[in-house]
Amino acid sequence: MTMQQDGYTFVLSDEVSRTPVRYKNRYGIEIAADVYRAKNLDESVAHPAIVIGPPHGGVKEQGPGVYAQELARRGFVALGFDPSYNGESSGEPRHITSPELFAEDFSAGVDYLGTLPYVNRERIGAIGICGSGGFALSAAQVDTRIRAVATSAMYDISGVQRNGWLNSSSPEDRQKTLESLAAQRWADVDAGEPALSPIFPSETPSEGLDPITREFFEYYVEERGHHPRSIGGFTITSGAAHINFGELRHIAEIAPRPILLITGENAHSRWFSDAIIEKATGPKELIVVPGARHIDLYDRTNLIPFDRLEKFFSENLRG
Q: For residues 157 and 305, which has the higher predicted lDDT (pLDDT)?
């Protein structure tokens, strides 16, 4: 799918309405989001609702909109948002990444949905795609208003920052990273602005990419999912916040609220979902989509198990 004239990476269904909205999180940052609902939605009745976060580095015009539209077709009120400091949401400097703020953005989405007269405050759930999977679970650990939480192609970004890829980082590696971040703070002070980690190029190199990077480039750089506000880079010094974050150590406290984890059979991120399913103590389910890679769960509507998502939220967001 290529970017449409309306700026989204998918075609808006004739059955669904999309309304741009703005609201503030508890830090005073204005969040840009879209509300999706079926055009025939009965507004005299309070409906279940779902807040949906994008992949780490993604925006609402990509995966969140794909999920929100399909769930709106199935009767849910769905909200896809841009994280703080990214996309069309406010916050300076741009492109900060923060595990605390990005988890708060889910709670802020719950706040907003709860102001809509056709949403039942007791029937709100959350979906986190890729990096937002970890942030959605983090939010659910402390925000009991999130009655059910699902993740798709989950990454625990803070776990990667703290422990390294596949938990391979040593204490010495961590210390070197902290020293590098400290040096970068001085460099930012001297430059008068924060430096960004590498952003996506204008086109995918023909060779020299490892398979995981090549997969991300297929989505973010090429026509499939490219969006000009989804640049891939974040302020380098944001890494310190992730290293110092508490990870998902309180995952057991989501119980007795249910968790649904969706991953791909061929997803390089699958081990994150496997780890969470072992840690969770309440109702939990792991779905492995045959043949799916990590990025296929961003936008491939023929692979994303929407029937299972509908069943999960319908059963667990009952009035």
A: 305
